[in-house]
Specification:
Strand content: 25-35%
Largest sheet: 4 strands, antiparallel
Structural class: alpha+beta
Shape: flat
Number of helices: 2
Length: 83
């Protein structure tokens, strides 16, 4: 299951730790949640522009919902940071 959480839905300037949206992904083909992190790390080490990725634990109403890969969205802020 994938979630996209937007912090600028009501306030267009809304941010959380500097980002407008976060994408949480837990693909069924990657139970280790490491494929995207390793691939993006490899691209970064090769000197190419790539998104950041880390792990996140989602909690809803105090109950743990799961562990996800948190992917940086490719948007205007990403492009400004990279180029």
């Amino acid at each position: 299951m994938q979630f996209v959480i937007a912090f600028n839905q009501i306030d267009r300037d809304g941010r959380f730790h500097g980002v407008r949206k976060i994408a949480l992904d837990a693909p069924p083909y990657d139970p280790s949640l490491l494929r995207e992190r390793v691939a993006l790390s490899y691209l970064t080490d090769a000197g190419l522009a790539s998104s950041c990725a880390n792990h996140a634990t989602l909690t809803i109403n105090g109950e743990p919902y799961g562990t996800y890969t948190n992917l940086e969205l490719v948007d205007d802020e990403f492009l400004e940071r990279q180029y």
